[in-house]
Design a protein that fits this description.
This protein is an alpha/beta fold. Helix content is 43%, strand content 19%. Bound molecules: adenosine-5'-diphosphate.
Length: 160
């Protein structure tokens, strides 16, 4: 039964992430969405608990998708959950350099695990969590880019 790990910060989860999870769920029997607990290089808006909770609610329509928090090496958690693949989403070519570096590093660490990269759906090609957070902070309409519960969570943060 092929299992895949879909790791990321998901700060917060948005429609581009959800689209990748839905498509990955058609390719694999089981998907574990792994929310990275503390990326040292990133300033996060939501706590790990909040990011996991939002992801769980946003993905609850997918019965073969599970959401967990994780720390440490991605390949270690992949081994722990029995995943043979890592799923990542690719937007513009600008994502490629970083994703290729990550995939090659993970492959060097764990040759038994492959990275499967899915190209974004056209309508989410320019969507990132950073853009989402910036537009939300400035009071713009983000309802096309995130599910209502995520929109609400962002509004709650920015309510005076
Ligand atoms: P990370 O912190 O590891 O970059 P993110 O939470 O930003 O993780 O994203 C997780 C994964 O989802 C990454 O592979 C990223 O490229 C992908 N992703 C982010 N935004 C989109 C989008 N709009 N369309 C498709 N994939 C996306």
């Amino acid at each position: 039964m092929p299992v895949a790990l879909y790791p990321g910060s998901f700060d917060p989860i948005h429609n581009g992430h959800i689209d990748i999870a839905e498509r990955a769920a058609r390719l694999f029997d089981w998907i574990v969405v792994a929310v990275y607990d503390s990326p040292s290089s990133k300033r996060l808006l939501f706590t790990t608990e909040q990011r996991v909770d939002l992801a769980r609610q946003a993905l609850q329509h997918l019965p073969t998708v599970q959401v967990i928090p994780y720390r440490g090496l991605t390949v270690d958690i992949a081994h722990q959950v029995g995943a043979s693949a890592l799923v990542r989403g690719l937007r513009a070519t600008s994502d490629y350099e970083y994703e290729a570096q990550l995939a090659l590093t993970n492959r060097a660490l764990a040759p038994d695990i492959d990275t499967v990269m899915l190209i974004t759906s056209l309508q989410y090609a320019y969507l990132s969590a950073s853009i989402l957070k910036e537009v939300a902070a400035l009071g713009g309409d983000i309802s096309h880019w995130a599910p209502p519960l995520v929109v609400q969570a962002l509004l709650n943060l920015h309510r005076p």
